[in-house]
Amino acid sequence: MTDLADSPAVRRLADWDHGRLEGLADEYDTPLYVMDLDRVKENYTRFAAAFPDAEVMYAAKAHTGKAVLEAVLEAGADIECAAWGELQRSIDAGADPNTLQYTAVNPPDHDLDYAADLAEEAPGLTITIGATDTLDRLAERGYDGRIAIRINPGIGTGHHEKVATGADAKFGIPYERVPEVADRVREEFELVGLHAHAGSGVLTEGLEEHCRAIERVGEMARRVGDDELEFVDVGGGYGVPYREDEEPLDLERTAEMVREAAGELEATLKLEPGRYVVADAGLILSEVNTIKEAPDATVVGVDASLATLIRPAMFGSYHPMLNVSAPDRDSHPVTVGGPVCTSADVFAHDRPVARPERGDILAIGNAGSYGYELASQFHSQPRPAEVALENGQSRVVRRRESLEDVTRVEQ
Ligand SMILES: *Cc1c(COP(=O)(O)O)cnc(C)c1O
Can you tell me where the transmembrane regions are (predicted)? Predict the structure, then answer.
C-alpha cells in the first residue's frame, strides 16, 4: 500500500483514466457523478498529516453522501455538521454521536430539538453557537452540555463574497462581546471551545488574510483562558486549484502559517476542511448532444446543466473540462451549455476543448464539493446517479432519480 500522506497535492482531469471514465458513462449513463473514495481518503490523510498535533474534522456539507461519510470516517475523521440532517446522516454512516460537532447558524426549532435530544444519549456532542438566542433556546430545551462559541473575527476570506463568512454579521458573536458570552456559557453550560470559519476556497494568495482571522481567534482564546478550553477551531476554507494553471496549496507552509497565527495555545487546534477533502475526488460525466456553429461561438450542448452543478451559475466558478472520448483531438474554443432555458446555464465560454463531436463524453472536473449537494430538480430533471470508485471497483451509491422521485411529494 502506498503512503497516503505522499499522494499528489492535486488531481487534475488529465490525471484520470480517460478510458475508464468513458466506460463508466457507457455503463451508468449520463449525466453521472463519479466520486473516487480512495482519493477522498488520501486527501483527508494528507491534510491531517500536515497538522500532526491538531484535530482535523470533515465538514459534511461539502458532500454528505453516505459513501463519502463512510470513507472519511474510515480515514479517521470526526465530522462537523451544520444542520440536523447532516448529524443524522453522519450517525447513519457510522459516526459516534459523541464525536459530532454541530455548528448552529440561525438554527430552526427542529434542529435544536434534534440536537438537544441527541445530547441526552450522547453527551459528547458539541454545539457551536453564533448568537446568544441559541443559548436561550438550548436552555429552554434543558440543554446544559458542551458549547463552543463561534467568533466573528471581523475578517472574511475566500473565492467569492458569497462564501466570505468571517466579517459577515450573520456568522458568529461580535468579537468584543465574546468574553461576556464566554462567562455566561461557563455559568450555564460547559464551555469547551472557540470557533471561527472565515471563508472558503482560500489558496496561497488568500492565506495571509485567512491567517489574520485565525490570529484574532487565538488572541481571543488566550483572553478567555485557553488553558480552560479543550479546543480552538479555526474552521475550514482551504481551497483547491480549479484552473489548470493554479498551484495547489502548499500544505506544509499552510500548516506553519496557521500554527503561527493561532499562537501559543494550551487547547488543541482543530480544523474542519470540507472542499479540500472531496473537490478533486469528484467529477461529472456529460454527453454532447448538440454542436452549433454560431457567428460568434461554437456552442456545445451537453446533458448536464445548472441543475446538475450550480457553481458556475451561482458563483461564476471555473470548472475544468476535458473531452475524455478524444483528449488528443485539436482543441478549439467552445461554449458549453446545458438544456436549461436560461443564459446562466453555461459551464464555459470560449474554452479550448479537444474538438467535441456529438456523442462524446465531456468530464467536468472538481465537482466533488458543493456539487451533488447543490443539485436540484429544476426543469423537472431527475437528479443524476452517483458512482463511487474504490479499490479498483465501481458501484452506484446514489441511483439515478426517476420522474416519480421528482413528483413523489405532490398531493
Ligand atoms: C462550510 C463550512 C466548512 C467547510 O468549508 P470548506 O470551504 O468546504 O472547507 C467548515 N466549517 C463550517 C462551520 C462551515 O460552515
Answer: none
Q: What average pLDDT score do residues 217-224 get? A: 97
Does the CB atom of residue 31 touch ligand 1 within 6 A? no
38 CA → ligand 1 middle, Å: 22
Burial label, 285 (beta-carbon count in 10 A; 0-12, 13-18, 19+): buried
pLDDT of amino acid 3: 60
User: Is the model's pLDDT at 117 over the cut of 70?
Assistant: yes
pLDDT at 160 over 80: no
Q: Which CATH architecture has domain 96-273?
A: Alpha-Beta Barrel (3.20)
Verify whether residue 341 is a known catalytic residue: yes
Contact 77, 57 (CB under 8 A): yes
Per domain, the residue ranges of the chain are: 96-273, 280-407
Residue 1 above 50 pLDDT?
no
| C-beta atoms surrounding 380 within 10 Å | 9
A 10 A CB-CB count for 191 gives 22
Q: Is residue 140 predicted with pLDDT exceeding 80?
A: yes
Residue among 393, 383, 288, 378 nearest 342 (CA): 378
Question: Closest by alpha carbon to 367, among 65, 136, 117, 119?
Answer: 65
Average pLDDT over residues 312-325: 97
Q: Which of 108, 110, 174, 184 is nearest to 144 (CA)?
A: 184
Strand partners, 157: 199
Give the residue, out of 55, 272, 311, with the most ligand 1 atoms within 8 A of its beta carbon, to mutate for a pocket test: 272
A 10 A CB-CB count for 16 gives 20
